[in-house]
Specification:
The chain is built from four helices and three strands. It has 144 residues and is α+β, with helices and mostly antiparallel strands. The chain has a domain of 88 residues: Alpha-Beta Complex (Sufe protein. Chain: A), CATH 3.90.1010. The longest helix has 25 residues. It is rod-shaped and about 115 Å long.
Length: 144
């Protein structure tokens, strides 16, 4: 039998350096994989102010449901109106319909909910309608 043992001497400093460099190489490979892997996510490029469509919001006026409907295209507010309004609301709150028509005209003319003018007697009605219109427009914003 030929038993010539071979002895390998490893210095601890060399093992530590090799481990550090190997760790850096693995980290570099992982970073490169994440940087250059092809993400199949297609980002939607929006060029308008709004996402086109018809947006609705349910509003309760004295426990009677009313539907606020806003029609938008990508750059314009086309219509703001109430749908499915009960006749009792017309009788009990006559300012609601006239206020909505005035707000709708002002918004479609100026394409903005800012600087809407109203009389002092209709302040609460206008502010309620405008706050609901603003919340619907925020949801329909292309930046969301």
């Amino acid at each position: 039998m030929n038993s010539n043992p071979k002895i390998v001497v490893l210095h601890m400093k060399e093992l530590i350096y090799t481990g550090i460099f190997l760790s850096f190489a693995i980290l570099l490979i992982v970073i490169l994989i994440f940087m250059f892997k092809n993400n199949n996510k297609k980002e939607e490029v929006s060029t308008g102010l709004y996402k086109p469509g018809v947006y609705t919001k349910a509003i309760s006026i004295n426990h009677s449901p009313v539907e606020l409907q806003i029609t938008l295209d990508k750059d314009n507010i086309n219509a703001v109106e109430f749908k499915n309004i009960d006749e009792s609301i017309n009788v009990m709150y006559p300012l609601v319909i006239s206020s909505m028509e005035d707000i709708s005209k002002q918004i479609t003319d100026s394409q903005s909910v800012d600087n809407i003018s109203y009389t002092g007697s209709c302040k609460y009605t206008y502010s309620t309608i405008l706050s609901n219109v603003k919340s619907v427009l925020n949801k329909a914003s292309a930046n969301n």
